[in-house]
């Protein structure tokens, strides 16, 4: 198997592997946490294969995924990777809140450094935007953390085009993380062009449609009962029946091409541009190997067009998230800086 190549992420100097590894599912949200020893083996296998861009967050667990990565990166492993983590979603008294106030930003960063057992985070994202705090205020604190050497590069996740511009004016943003896959394409209209105009790298999470394009609709029967995908609109029976056709057509095309449907879906994301780094997650070495196989799947313009026609906007049924969760797409912008009164 060829080693995974490298790419420049954004224009600030960060270089990462051409595909990353999303680590969330190892510890949280996708059913019970997986055995630590197996996950450390998987992380080491990824790094040896050239996948050195690892993605976590303080909310995965919460905290347990960062602790896992801290253990996995001992013994000289830390120097071989580009480590991304996130802050901004907090759980207090069983309630989920989104925060971007300076004191919280700093405390969250210190907490992540401690759990990861490192002195500096390579890429630090605001996981969700706090729409009560002007983005300039949050960025001001992140900029201080860069100056203090606690973080190297700044990113935002799920931010609107205007928020990205306002943030970038305070301190250069290196990467925007967003959901981008064959069945999630709303970012193509404004967010992606804004990133390209400003020289910001694009990190695509859930590039396999949360496993849908690798396993198809049957995955719903095999996932654990506490897997949060069970509650997502696209995986509800009435929508799944409709979405099944899309998977079947992608699968047919993959069979003709001599690859798996997951590899085809992932190759489509790679073909969006050399500034896009997908970060598929997995908990199994064989699935990881299959995912990096997507890098050698080359698609012609005709094949790209065929895939687009299969999944054209009306093809997918169901929203990305159910209405009651603060993980929803936060398109609303933060208040203007002039409105902020610091205590």
TrEMBL record:
GO MF, any single term: oxidoreductase activity
InterPro entries: Aldo-Keto_reductase (IPR050791), NAD(P)_OxRdtase_dom_sf (IPR036812), NADP_OxRdtase_dom (IPR023210)
CDD domains: AKR_AKR13D1 (cd19145)
Gene Ontology CC, one term: cytoplasm
NADP-dependent oxidoreductase domain boundaries: 23-310
Keywords from the UniProt entry: NADP, Oxidoreductase
Protein name per the record: Aldo-keto reductase
Organism: Actinidia chinensis var. chinensis (Chinese soft-hair kiwi)
């Amino acid at each position: 198997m060829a080693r995974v190549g490298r790419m420049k992420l954004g224009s600030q100097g960060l270089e990462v592997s051409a595909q990353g590894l999303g680590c969330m599912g190892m510890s949280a949200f996708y059913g019970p946490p997986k055995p630590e020893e197996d996950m450390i083996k998987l992380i080491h296998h990824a790094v040896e294969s050239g996948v050195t861009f690892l993605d976590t967050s303080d909310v995965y667990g919460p905290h347990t995924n960062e602790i896992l990565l801290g253990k996995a990166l001992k013994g000289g492993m830390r120097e071989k990777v580009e480590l991304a983590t996130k802050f901004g979603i907090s759980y207090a008294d069983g309630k989920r809140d989104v925060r971007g106030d300076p004191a919280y930003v700093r405390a969250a960063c210190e907490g992540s450094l401690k759990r990861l057992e490192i002195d500096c985070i390579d890429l630090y994202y605001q996981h969700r935007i706090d729409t009560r705090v002007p983005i300039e205020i949050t960025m001001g604190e992140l900029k201080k953390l860069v100056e203090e050497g606690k973080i190297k590069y700044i990113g935002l996740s799920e931010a609107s085009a205007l928020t990205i511009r306002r943030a970038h004016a305070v301190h250069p943003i290196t990467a925007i993380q967003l959901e981008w896959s064959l069945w999630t394409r709303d970012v193509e209209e404004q967010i992606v062009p804004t990133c390209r105009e400003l020289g910001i790298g694009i990190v695509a999470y859930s590039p396999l449609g949360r496993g849908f394009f690798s396993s198809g609709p049957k995955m719903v029967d095999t996932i654990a009962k506490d897997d949060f995908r069970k509650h997502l609109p696209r995986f509800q029976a009435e929508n799944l029946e409709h979405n099944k056709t899309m998977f079947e057509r992608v699968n047919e095309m993959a069979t003709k091409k001599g690859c798996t449907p997951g590899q085809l879906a992932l190759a489509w994301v790679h073909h969006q541009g050399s500034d896009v780094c997908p970060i598929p997650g997995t908990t199994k070495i064989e699935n990881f190997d299959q995912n990096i196989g997507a890098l050698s799947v080359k698609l012609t313009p005709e094949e790209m067009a065929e895939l687009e026609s299969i999944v054209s906007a009306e093809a997918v049924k169901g929203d990305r998230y159910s209405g009651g969760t603060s993980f929803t797409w936060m398109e609303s912008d933060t208040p203007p800086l002039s409105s902020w009164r610091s205590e």
